[in-house]
Write a structure and sequence with these properties.
Cytochrome p450; about 50% helix; 3-stranded antiparallel β-sheet; single chain; alpha+beta; about 400 residues; binds protoporphyrin IX containing FE; 5-stranded mixed β-sheet; 17 helices
């Protein structure tokens, strides 16, 4: 099984789907011994079964391979919502869910479109730019900045902090990234204090006055929530945009179809999410000895849910699962790019909105944007990402 190494970024840069396809057929729940060992959950039905059962499969011991377990977390650092189980998880999720409904996302459309247009207006027709830097990075970053109450003039600082956070999360933690993250926490603490004395209709004000069981949420919990949003909503949406752009350049027939039938765009975004799968995996830990697909799972075992594999499971998507098809029926089956169950991505309506608005604006302005060099893919086992995407912006 040496063509399968789901803890190694190089595996994902090769052709992981060849190994996934073979394993789904021959051994759909293999034990992988690297990185402390994990059951690798490759089938769509099994990823759903694990995600919907926090009693058996907990998030409190971390959701990434080798992640710090709850018990090892330094004192004073609260768990993020991603690492909670019910009932604590539901209590925290309820506090913010109102800011992330499809209706709330709709209210953000004007702001999102304005940011997308500003990015596109800086691009001259026929010029060549890195699409990642020009569009995919700034859009989600500035949208979250708006949500967290960062003023326009503070955007350059915010970009530095958010780059530091992403670098630190990707294993590149240094004294400089620590200093930037510390500066950012100080900034949010200031925003929080301002909202406490003069609340606005925004997310930070909502958190500032949030209560669980009659008790106000503490500052560390609120700051952790801000950081979680920044980390969870940035690189993910960035790579939906850049991965989706790459797919539409590599599949000209599909782009032609989108240009001819623009109403297909929301469905095309679902297909981009399925095919590209920006977050390749998350983990759970078994709380007791149990069974999955007839396999005995021991208490304390890790399960690695490979969304990337589940989203190509031929049992669900048919024999053409590997094909990128903007007309594929996404009403019938759900892809698992946003996870499933208790922890289903809170930012999914927002990410969908950002991608739809960006592609509407991009296709209207530069319908024939094309590759102008080799794309550079991100070296990561967690994120399916594009580092650099040289594009000629043709009208
Ligand atoms: C294409 C973009 C995105 C993808 C692929 C993505 C993917 C995911 C996945 C797979 C999970 C499930 C985690 C688990 O089960 O352990 C998740 C959870 C989460 N996402 Fe996203 N995400 C995206 C965008 C966003 C955005 C824009 C935000 C917010 C601004 C966000 C905030 C969150 C939060 C807070 C959670 C935790 C929810 C909970 O634990 O209840 N995400 N996301």
């Amino acid at each position: 099984m040496n063509d399968f190494a789901p803890d190694d970024p190089a595996f994902f840069l090769g052709d992981p789907h060849a190994a996934f396809r073979r394993l789904r057929r021959e051994d759909p729940l293999p034990w992988y011994a690297g990185s402390g060992g994990a059951w690798c959950v490759l089938k769509h039905a099994d990823v759903m079964a694990v995600s919907r059962d926090p009693q058996r499969f907990t998030s409190t011991r971390g959701v990434q391979l080798d992640q710090m377990a709850d018990a090892d977390r330094p004192q004073g650092i609260p768990a993020s919502i991603l690492e909670m189980d019910p009932p604590q998880h539901n209590q925290h999720r309820k506090l913010v869910i109102g800011a992330f409904t499809p209706r709330a996302a709709k209210l953000q459309e004007t702001m999102v479109r304005q940011i997308a247009r500003e990015c596109l207006e800086a691009i001259e027709p026929e010029s060549v730019h890195d699409l990642v830097e020009a569009l995919a990075v700034p859009l989600p970053m500035y949208v979250i900045a708006e949500m967290l109450g960062v003023s326009r003039s503070d955007r350059p600082r915010f970009k530095r902090w958010s780059d530091a956070l992403i670098a630190a999360g990707g294993g590149g933690r240094t004294p400089e990234t620590d200093a930037s993250v510390g500066e950012m926490l100080g900034y949010f603490a200031g925003v929080l204090a301002e909202r406490r004395s003069a609340p606005k209709d925004d997310l930070v004000s909502r958190l500032a006055f949030a209560e669980i069981g009659g008790e106000r949420l503490g500052d560390p919990d609120i700051l952790m929530f801000c950081i979680t949003l920044l980390a969870a909503g940035n690189e993910t949406t960035r790579n939906l945009v850049s991965g989706g752009a790459l797919l539409s350049m590599r599949n000209p027939d599909q782009r032609q179809r989108l240009l001819a039938e623009p109403r297909l765009l929301p469905n095309a975004i679902e297909e981009m999410l399925r095919w590209w799968t920006p977050v390749q995996s998350f983990t759970r830990t078994a709380t007791r000895t149990t069974e999955l697909r007839g396999q005995r799972i021991a208490e304390g075992d890790t399960l690695l849910m490979l969304y990337a594999s589940a989203n190509r499971d031929e049992e669900v998507w048919g024999d053409d699962a590997d094909r990128f098809d903007v007309g594929r029926d996404h009403a019938r089956v759900r892809h698992l790019a946003f996870g499933f169950g208790e922890h289903l991505c809170l930012g999914a309506p927002l990410a969908r909105l950002e991608a739809r608005v960006l592609f509407e604006e991009l296709l209207a302005r530069f319908p024939h944007f094309e590759l102008a060099g080799e794309p550079e893919l991100l070296h990561s086992r967690l994120i399916h990402g594009v580092e650099r995407l040289p594009v000629r912006f043709r009208r």
